[in-house]
Write a structure and sequence with these properties.
mainly beta; 147 residues; 5-stranded antiparallel β-sheet; Jelly Rolls; globular; 3-stranded antiparallel β-sheet; 1 helix
């Protein structure tokens, strides 16, 4: 077929391989280890995310760990406001949790991300504490013409 659009992926980036501390249920994490820049995404506005989410005990099935982003350098070197447990302005995606096990591997897609940013996890009603051994990976994504 001619003139079709295909998904074009960039290079995967490790956002974190551990958290700076545990995250209680209904609490926002500290900023994750690595943010991303326009150099990491090469202008791709969307991204796929892969997460390894580890809990101290079995979490509530179908609860979520939500991903939020803080936009950086939105005006010169000024950043948007950092999210807090009660102020979460820029949602990215949710990772749905499997109950009956302490580790869930999950994926999500974020659309229209800022050109640079930092990420945060929100432990949304899982009933358990996220452990420091959680991980997050980001692969930039966009649509492009078929070759």
């Amino acid at each position: 077929m001619s003139n079709e659009a295909i998904q074009v992926r960039g290079t995967a980036k490790t956002i974190c391989t551990s958290l700076s501390g545990t995250v209680a249920t209904n609490v926002l994490s500290a900023v994750l280890t690595n943010g991303y820049t326009a150099t990491d995404t090469l202008g791709k506005p969307d991204a796929e995310f892969a997460a390894k989410l580890v809990f101290g005990s079995n979490p509530t099935e179908n609860s979520t760990v939500d991903l939020y982003v803080r936009a950086k350098n939105i005006q010169s070197t000024n950043h948007s406001e950092a999210p807090t447990t009660t102020y979460k302005p820029r949602f990215v995606c949710s990772f749905v949790i499997k109950g009956g096990q302490t580790t869930t591997y999950a994926d999500g897609v974020g659309m229209g991300l800022p050109k640079e940013g930092d990420f945060y996890f929100y432990n949304n009603n899982t009933g358990q504490t996220l452990q420091t051994t959680c991980e997050l990976y980001m692969t930039p994504l966009t649509l492009g013409p078929a070759a």
